[in-house]
Specification:
235 residues; four-stranded antiparallel β-sheet; six-stranded mixed β-sheet; binds adenosine-5'-triphosphate; alpha/beta; binds magnesium ion; 10 helices; single chain
Length: 235
């Protein structure tokens, strides 16, 4: 079943077109990775899906219903959750408070259940439950951003470059957590520049360049295709 479907999306900022006539389908239960260089339009794609950038042309469907032009909070409430590029944590709030902030209207019990799930994914966060987010390491902050995005048990989880700026060993910890989330059957759309981290966990890969999809397929085909890897990923 299709969970997200973008049809002929053209979108950008002021006069600059970033995504051009893009079609993209995300299937339920899959981990779909979007790879591509700086400025390819990866974050813009996630902003279009979450309603913070309204497309100039085209339509977005979530579980068969058109959501083009809907408000960000409505789309979030439907079950689309984003862990953003710049993490956007509340630096002066603790780990617990950052996690709970998405759940102000939920019961204490459901808050606890969600938090227990997050701590299963990233046990490090449990050890640091009272620490202020702003004083944590980059890797821990990334864990918290992803943790916050899964608190409301979204139908689809959008991850914007979770490995950005992190050392290899920390990237591995982050991807270990993402693998655990994937194993629960959650649909994931992950945007990355580090192809080697994302290829082992992806079911499908789309390579973006200059706002267009240059290649689409599964990781196995990408492993075999040296020319595509060299041209677009430099690996
Ligand atoms: N708020 C904005 N206003 C104007 N232009 C923007 C804005 N945000 C992004 N852009 C431009 O849109 C283009 C695509 O940006 P986007 O952030 O989607 O790329 P990206 O693939 O996520 O890159 P990166 O890997 O560096 O995060 C870039 O040329 C960028 O300068
Ligand atoms: Mg980006």
């Amino acid at each position: 079943m299709l969970i997200l479907s973008l049809k002929n999306i053209t979108a950008g900022y002021a006069k600059a077109i970033v995504l051009e006539d893009m079609n993209l389908d995300i299937h339920e239960g899959e981990c779909h990775a979007v790879l591509g260089p700086n400025g390819a339009g990866k974050s813009t794609l996630l902003k279009v899906i979450t309603g913070s950038v309204i497309p100039a042309k085209g339509s977005i469907f979530f579980l068969g219903n058109e959501i083009t032009g809907r408000k960000t909070f409505e789309i979030a409430r439907m079950g689309v959750s984003l862990s953003p590029e710049n993490r956007r944590l509340f630096p002066d709030l603790s780990v617990k408070e950052n996690l709970e902030i998405a759940m102000v209207y939920e019961s204490t019990k459901s808050k606890k259940n969600s938090m227990d799930f997050v701590f299963e994914i990233f046990p490090r966060l449990k050890e640091r439950i009272t620490q202020k987010a702003g004083t944590m390491s980059g890797g821990e902050q990334q864990m918290l951003a992803i943790g916050r995005a899964i608190m409301l048990n979204p139908k689809v989880l959008l991850l914007d470059e979770p490995s950005m700026g992190l050392a290899h060993v920390i990237k591995e910890q982050i991807f270990e957590g993402i693998k655990k989330i994937r194993s629960t059957g959650k649909t994931i759309l992950i945007v990355e520049q580090d192809a080697t981290m994302v290829m082992p966990i992806a079911d499908k890969i789309s390579i973006f360049e200059h706002g267009k999809i240059k290649w689409e397929g599964n990781p196995k085909d990408l492993t075999k295709d040296n020319s595509i890897r060299n041209a677009y990923l430099g690996i």
